[in-house]
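User: Reviewer 2 asked us to show a designed sequence for the structure in our supplementary figure. I'm pasting the structure tokens here. Could you produce the per-position amino acids so we can include them in the response letter?
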């Protein structure tokens, strides 16, 4: 938990990676003062969600849901709205019209891509559907590779909040199929570049930072739930110690 002042933002979400990982990373990267309220979902067969349901309609949220962000009088839900809110405070939504267009496109495209994996993992017929997902995965990744092209970041040469979102989704697919990025050198370079960039500001606090917490990727009623793991400790890859690895 990050708690730097009495005026900290409050981020509420399940005790998992899920839709909050990009938000946590952006909060850390921007050195934003925040606290986390983590809700636990129970184990099978009931998957008790009472920790959240008991307070869901008591928080004065317009559209009660997880994740939520509270920043003084401002109370937000919807994960991408939260990302944009934080990003606007740090000029991370794009400067030029071209950058803003690319941000808008990627924000929506990467969420469509995320939902394909989510639907697969929560489907009871997961094992039978997995081969089809893996068959189509290269063509999906190729589109992102072509869109990124020779740029450093997905908006161009400026880091924006969609890079945090895209890193998270590509990383989840890399967990699902470890070799999925091998055919796309620029995507591998992007992942490495992000890890180098993200590691650089935090050499003294890697061990205790929230983004290194070993929490599950998703809720326990999914077929891609791995208890106590799945949030990468970025320093473990040591990408920044291998010259040339972050260039395609």
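Assistant: Here is a per-position design you can include in the supplement:
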């Amino acid at each position: 938990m990050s708690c730097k002042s009495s005026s900290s933002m409050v981020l509420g979400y399940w005790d998992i990676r899920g839709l909050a990982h990009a938000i946590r990373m952006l909060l850390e990267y921007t050195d934003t003062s925040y606290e986390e309220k983590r809700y636990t979902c129970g184990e099978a067969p009931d998957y008790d969600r009472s920790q959240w349901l008991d307070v869901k309609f008591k928080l004065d949220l317009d559209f009660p849901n997880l994740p939520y962000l509270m920043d003084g009088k401002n109370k937000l839900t919807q994960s991408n709205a939260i990302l944009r809110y934080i990003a606007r405070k740090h000029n991370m939504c794009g400067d030029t019209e071209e950058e803003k267009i690319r941000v808008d496109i990627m924000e929506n495209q990467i969420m469509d891509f995320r939902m394909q994996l989510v639907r697969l993992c929560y489907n009871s017929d997961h094992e039978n559907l997995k081969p089809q997902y893996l068959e189509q995965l290269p063509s999906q990744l190729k589109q992102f590779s072509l869109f990124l092209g020779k740029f450093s970041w997905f908006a161009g040469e400026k880091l924006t909040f969609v890079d945090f979102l895209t890193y998270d989704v590509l990383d989840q697919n890399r967990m699902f199929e470890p070799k999925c990025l091998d055919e796309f050198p620029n995507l591998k370079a992007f992942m490495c570049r992000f890890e180098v960039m993200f590691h650089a500001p935090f050499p003294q606090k890697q061990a205790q930072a929230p983004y290194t917490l070993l929490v599950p990727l998703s809720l326990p009623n999914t077929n891609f739930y791995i208890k106590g793991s799945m949030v990468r400790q970025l320093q473990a890859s040591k990408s920044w110690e291998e010259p040339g690895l972050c260039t395609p």
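For the response letter, you might also mention the following. Residues 1-6, 203-208, 210-215, 225-243 have pLDDT under 50 and may be disordered. The helical segments are 21-29, 50-53, 79-88, 97-121, 126-148, 161-176, 185-199.
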